[in-house]
Amino acid sequence: MPDNAKERIPVLDDLLKTAIREELKSVHTMLPGQIEKFDSGTQRAEITIAISIPMKDGTVKKYPQLINVPVQFMRWGGFSITMPIKKGDQVAVMFSERSLQTWIERGKVQDTPNDIRFFDINDAFALPGLDALTSTTVSRCKTPSFRHIRSLT
């Protein structure tokens, strides 16, 4: 093996790591968000992502405002638990592994997705209840069956 081949391997390794890291920047999993507008009839919201994107040059880029985002409440067996949502409430914004478009529109199992996107910012749904630990509206109470403190907002 030529001497310069040993020198090239770490460079190739660094290039691959950098390429993978850059590609992962477009993979979305979960981000905290804030409700800007909520329609209780459609259970959809406009949401601002609460964390910005740090850029290599030291600047910060904001995510676009998400619109028409389904807000998911617990529901099963024809029963659901909903809660009032207001502007400023915090939510967990989840991003689906595959496109949600057809599933949301038709509500049934689909054999073939209608497009190939994955972990895309356009396939978001929101789960209410996420709250920063800095919330000042937290009241505390003891539960009778446990000896720990639960926080209620």
Commentary on this structure:
The chain is an alpha+beta fold and 153 residues long. It has a single domain (28-152), classed as Gp5 N-terminal domain (OB fold (Dihydrolipoamide Acetyltransferase, E2P), Beta Barrel), CATH 2.40.50. It has two helices and eleven strands, in the order H-E-E-E-E-E-E-E-E-H-E-E-E. A five-stranded antiparallel beta sheet has the order 5-2-1-8-9, with no helix packed on it. A two-stranded antiparallel ribbon has the order 3-4. It has a two-stranded antiparallel ribbon with strand order 6-7. The radius of gyration is 21 Å and the shape is globular.
Topology:
Layout: H1 3-24, E1 30-39, E2 44-49, E3 53-54, E4 60-61, E5 66-70, E6 74-76, E7 79-81, E8 90-95, H2 101-106, E9 124-128, E10 139-142, E11 149-152
Antiparallel strand pairs: 1-2, 1-8, 2-5, 3-4, 6-7, 8-9, 10-11
Key words describing this protein structure:
2 helices; disordered C terminus; 153 residues; five-stranded antiparallel beta sheet; 11 strands; alpha+beta; globular; OB fold (Dihydrolipoamide Acetyltransferase, E2P)
**Could you describe the largest sheet, including whether it forms a barrel?**
5 strands, antiparallel
Oligomer state equals single chain
Mean of residue pLDDT values: 82
From the 3D structure, determine the CATH topology: OB fold (Dihydrolipoamide Acetyltransferase, E2P)
| Whole-number tally of structural domains | 1
H-E order: HEEEEEEEEHEEE
Q: What percentage of amino acids are in beta strands?
A: 25-35%
Helical residues, percent: 10-25%
Distance between the termini: 66 Å
Secondary structure tally, helices: 2
Query: What is the CA-based Rg, rounded?
Result: 21 Å
Main structural class: alpha+beta
Runs in which pLDDT lies below 50 for 5 or more consecutive residues are: 146-153
Overall shape? globular
